[in-house]
Amino acid sequence: MVKKEMIAMLLAGGQGSRLGVFTSKVAKPAVAFGGKYRIIDFPLSNCINSGVDTVGVLTQYQPLRLNTHIGIGIPWDLDRNIGGVTVLPPYEKSAHSEWYTGTANAIYQNLDYMESYNPEYVLILSGDHIYKMDYEVMLDFHKQNGAEVTIAVMPVPMEEAKRFGIMITDKDRRITDFEEKPENPRSNLASMGIYIFNWKTLKEALLTNASQPGLDFGKHIIPYCHEKGAPLYAYEFNGYWKDVGTLSSYWEANMELIDIVPEFNLYEEYWKIYTKSEILPPQYLSSDSVVERSIIGEGSEIYGQVYNSVIGCGVTIGEGTVIRDSIIMNETQIGSHCELYKAIVAENTVIEDDVRLGIGEEAENETDPHIYNSGIVAVGEKSFIPQGVTVGKNSVVFGVTSAQDYADGSLPSGKTLIKAGDKQ
Question: Distance of alpha carbon 228 from its chain centroid, rounded?
């Protein structure tokens, strides 16, 4: 029987509803990030850089693009005969079939997969954070302390602590108590949703709690292990870590990549971020183009001006067009003499000539102000915006729109324009 010291289970089934139209057709971990990557590339690259060569990726919501992206794991050097990457969707079982109902339920449904490697340790990861972390260092910490469960934590400002699961520890970092989103936090160590379990401990906890509805690590498994007196430790992480779960945090994380001294550096030789790359020609900048402080993906052609933006692969930007503080995803075509300010434009979108996005005063979004805010204009994938229209801030366009959809040629700030057939 094959024996692996540590295997990773990467939870990538989430819908990411706070990303609005960007996750209506694709799972959050498969959303494009940083010009050429997808969000899931970061935890996957962390695995291979940390020497973890067996990764189960648990998918559920809209998994097609994620499955295609991961394939057999070649870009991450995870195409192994033994181990490697395995996509684990929920499947039909003889007695009853069920979706993954909670983070721990998803892991429970894949006990057989984990059992087949008979690991000593299981690393549980989430597929929707941007960070670099050496899991091997965390495993060393786990072993040194004789822990049965180690939870990665990150110090957060005290005033923000009430938004997280908070760990209370003694001087040796042993967890004495924890609180889920406490009103009056007693510590500022926030759980990052990254766990190392001894396999025996995890298996026993999953089997004992299997019947809990919506079986979850934070709500059920960790409290169960704590009550049993298993040694739980907090591993403190002080690097860059970003949850890109909202449009504004997604926009910020992309913008931070182009800071003069980026806090999160995509160019480090010793910690590469691997991804599936299409075979594309180099980017082309015309003699009239201007590009300042931006990332431009392969195969893109720039005839206009790009400032402080992240441009994906295979994008065309027409002459006389000005793009500022924006994220343009792969294969999008933008015509000439357009203006885009603080726009996020998803993949395979066509924007015709003389279109202006992000113009005018801000107004609260009429349908989902908790999603579409911070002055961002959101354009969903495969959308079409006809020539000469103006779109305001905190607004959304999704689908193939025509001139008739824009009264007087404009969509005011805060409006939502989602064409039938593109319902979320």
Answer: 34
Q: The tokens of 372 are what? A: 């579409």
DSSP string, 78-141: ---SSSEEEEE-----SS------SHHHHHHTTHHHHHTT--SEEEEEETTEEE---HHHHHHH
Beta bridge partners of 292: 307
User: Could you tell me the two tokens for 30?
Assistant: 């498969």
Dump pLDDT digits (tens) for 132-148. Answer: 999 999 999 999 999 99
Angle CA 14–16–21, to nearest 5: 130
Yes or no: say if 10 and 334 are a contact pair by the CB < 8 Å rule.
Answer: no
Mean pLDDT of the chain: 86
Q: Which residues contact 279 (CB under 8 A, 6 or more apart)?
A: none
Residue-level pLDDT at 63: 55
* Strand segments (E) across 213-253: 232-236, 241-243
Distance from chain centroid for Cα 182: 25
Q: How far is CA 286 from CA 149, 313, 320, in A?
A: 55, 16, 12
Phi, psi of 212 (to 5 degrees): -65, 130
| Res. 216 pLDDT band, cuts 50 70 90 | confident
DSSP one-letter string for 333-378 = EE-SS-EEESEEE-TT-EE-TT-EES-S-----SS-TTTS-TT-EE
**Dist. CA 214–CA 415, nearest whole Å:** 36
Q: Are 325 and 393 in contact (CB under 8 A)?
A: no
Helix or strand or coil: residue 42? helix
Q: Identify whether the C-beta of residue 397 lies closer than 8 Å to the C-beta of residue 411.
A: yes
